Amino acid sequence: MYGKFQKYLQDELSAIKEAGLYKNERNIASPQSAEIKLEDGSVALNFCANNYLGLADNPRLIEAAGKAMKSRGYGMSSVRFICGTQDLHKQLEKAISDFFRTEDTILYASCFDANGGVFEPLLTADDAIISDSLNHASIIDGVRLCKAVRYRYANADMEDLERCLKEAQAQRFRIICTDGVFSMDGNVAPMDKICALAEKYDALVMVDESHSAGVVGKTGRGVAEQFGCYGKIDIFTGTLGKAFGGAVGGFTTGRKEIIDMLRQRSRPYLFSNSIPPMIAAAAIETFKILEESTALHDRQQENVAYFRDKMIAAGFDIKPTQSAICAVMLYDAPLSQKFAAKMAEEGIFVTGFYYPVVPKGQARIRVQLSAAHKKEHLDKAIAAFVKVGRELGVIK
Ligand SMILES: *Cc1c(COP(=O)(O)O)cnc(C)c1O
Asked: Which of 142, 148, 239, 271 could form a disulfide bond with 210, CB atoms 3.0-4.6 angstroms apart?
């Protein structure tokens, strides 16, 4: 049997390669950081990690994880509700609730799991899910697992959302769900307007803070802080794999009864292992660090502003970012790939995106700024952009 199937896979893989969509991985042989060492010994500056607060190699997190591993062992070998819950898990859930000013929190192995397990336990075929067209794949998959009626509105388009809300009056309950920050443009969902529409049309609100938490808002507490809509968002999901240390883990945080129901019925929670104690301990330390000072958040914001302003001054076309994501627009797909490859030759890692990840004719280089970047890193990246930009005729 495998022979025929193998041929089929080989053909498909060749087609992916021919379309230029085959994903190759870089082998890093150092901690994740602004400066990374590769397997071949070369060094590069990393501008494509989600390490927004530079915590991925933070000594305090490493120590907290190490201490917890010594005192609590390596793993739990259980799901939470059988014998997989430690005090550390409860402490972390409390720390997340405090950070987002919510009532309760439930942990998952990832935010992919949190989104996969959030809709199906709460909503039925009588209800409606109203989803932003640029929501993350895990929200799309979570929605697919639920029988609720689906509505989709154009990215951050409030008129289109209102149209969906009107149509969804036919259902019993309605929930609007959106990413906090959209990962391709770096724009923030207009939560004040979304919450106002939710109130007008009697809908719940869910936001995925994966790219926004730690980044947006005056002190980095996410979209509720940014838009002053505490108490108006019913469900937040998020990841421990981006700004919050970059290891693994996800969470859903929000209203008490919602979290309680998820603990009873959410399948990725009930049927998947609990996060290791060392991860919980390091994540608790993360929230302590963020409680103590906003220095990391502030530096991250300064870095975005510095990079953006210098790039605009150099003549690049930059999407008006509201986050740690800076999209350098090139429009042309092959150009975006050539540009990223030349940047890698200069020792700068950035990613070129094109259709179908972004709309046709909207190819770009995505740059992700971090608190870990020093001014000299930023200057080096900008100089490389200018050099490659001139070589390829993008700027004069
Ligand atoms: C990264 C991301 C996720 C997935 O998070 P993991 O914890 O890595 O599974 C989910 N939603 C959004 C919006 C993301 O950006």
From this structure: 239
Please give the distance, rounded to the nearest whole angstrom, from the Cα atom of residue 78 to the centre of ligand 1: 23
* Number of structural domains the chain divides into: 2
The answer to whether residue 180 sits within a structural domain is yes
Q: Which of 183, 212, 274, 336 is catalytic?
A: 183
User: Considering the chain, what is the average pLDDT of its residues?
Assistant: 97
Residue identifier of the C-alpha nearest atom 2 of ligand 1: 210
- In this structure, what token pair is assigned to residue 378? 């930023």
- The residue nearest atom 1 of ligand 1, judged by CA position, is 210
User: Is the bond leading into 121 cis (omega within 30 degrees of zero)?
Assistant: no
Contact 362, 288 (CB under 8 A): no
Verify that 260 and 343 share a domain, yes or no: no
pTM for this entry? 0.96
Q: Can you tell me the mean pLDDT for 66-80?
A: 98
Q: How many CB atoms lie within 10 A of CB 185?
A: 23
Residue 23 has pLDDT above 90, yes or no: no
How long, in residues, is the chain?
396
Residue-range definition of the domain harbouring residue 38: 20-49+294-391
The reply to whether 211 belongs to the active site is yes
For the segment 276-285, the average pLDDT, to the nearest whole number, is 98
**Ligand 1, atom 5: nearest CA belongs to which residue?**
111
- Residue 219 placed within a domain: yes
> Per 3-state DSSP, what percentage of the chain is helix, strand, and coil (rounded to 5)?
45, 15, 40
